[in-house]
Amino acid sequence: MAVSQKLSTFRLPPLPTIGEIIKLYNLRAEKQLSQNFLLDMRLTDKIARQAGHLQDTHVCEVGPGPGGLTRSILKAGAADVFVVEKDKRFIPGLQLLSEAAPGRLRIAHGDILTYRLDKAFPDKIAKTWEDVPPNLHIIGNLPFSVSTPLIIKWLEQMSNRSGPFVFGRTRLTLTFQKEVAERLTASTGSRQRSRLSVMAQYLCNVKNCFTIPGRAFVPKPDVDVGVVHFTPLAQPQIQQPFKLVERIVRNVFQFRRKHCRRGLEMMFPESQRQELTEVLLHRADVDPTLRPTELSISEFRALADAYSTLCQENQGLVEYDFREELRLKHKAKKQWSSNSKEIHLHNTIDERGDH
Questions:
Q1: Of 219, 228, 255, 22, whose CA–CA distance to 141 is shortest?
Q2: Dist CA 268 CA 251 (whole Å)
Q3: How far, in Å, are 42, 44, 58, 72, 166 from residue 8 at the CA level?
Q4: Helix segments in 1-103, DSSP class H
Q5: What is the DSSP letter of 187?
Q6: What's the pLDDT score for residue 200?
Q7: Could you give the CA distance from residue 191 to residue 179 in angstroms, rounded to a whole number?
Q8: What are phi and psi of 65, to 5 degrees?
Q9: Helices 68-75 and 41-50: crossing angle, nearest 10°?
Q10: Per-residue pLDDT for 127 more than 60?
Q11: What HEC string does 106-135 produce?
């Protein structure tokens, strides 16, 4: 209780402002890393609050940069903050913050896309998947270039219960371009509904918390930013392997303006395309004239279950890639054309020889 009381009233000693840190260490946002600094501590405090009750928790912060959000997390009473920063220019400023919060801030210089978060926290904090979420949060003001590949990676790890999800249903509070945030939370039938909507929502409760105007960042990006909170579901809405679900969703949405049948057809070899598409739609009881944006999670679940059964019944179907079949077809056509020209040339030469 004494520790909780101490952390709840914890105040960082006087420190240079984030703006002063940027000047002190001559930090500039790198455009190729899509870096944008958030200097307004009221907004970083608001992001930390969206994560939930952080007192006495473990937190992994992704891409802390000059440390504005890190300060807000520490002020909220987190007991153990582990930051992963790819850009070594920010490390000295973070070390200064670590000295101001002894024993509470750990710094790793690395790439979050490859970092082993399953090794970053003690095993004792783990909960079973069906239990309440663990005393662990992931929070990050993500660079735009990494946000989508990172959330796809974490959704797959969530499905496999690997990475930061070995500890249980670890919650995430992350920033995205406003358009991506809207896609992540888009409901069935909405214009923003996308592959990302389905992949996130079959695994999580997803909440679009609030929007930060682009002018709040330095340098100012061309778009506004959305803060999104994810809580993994105790029971995913689709009980099939992530890669299988992703294949169906990706194929359906590649023709987002067409009927869903058009995309589903591409999961089958040309010789069986019509037949197996009919079987899939019949078994799943899905209307083939629905647009991709109109398909509900339950309809995607029915398609995934039916497709899984078809893969068991048809050897090699799970490895089928229509792009590879198309490539081989073009290659064969090109070879045939080349051979035809060669034969024609030989015939022409022979005819001239006869004369």
A1: 228
A2: 11
A3: 18, 18, 14, 13, 28
A4: 2-8, 18-24, 41-50, 68-75, 91-100
A5: P
A6: 98
A7: 11
A8: 60, -130
A9: 60
A10: yes
A11: EEEECCCCCCCHHHCCCHHHCCCCCCCCCC
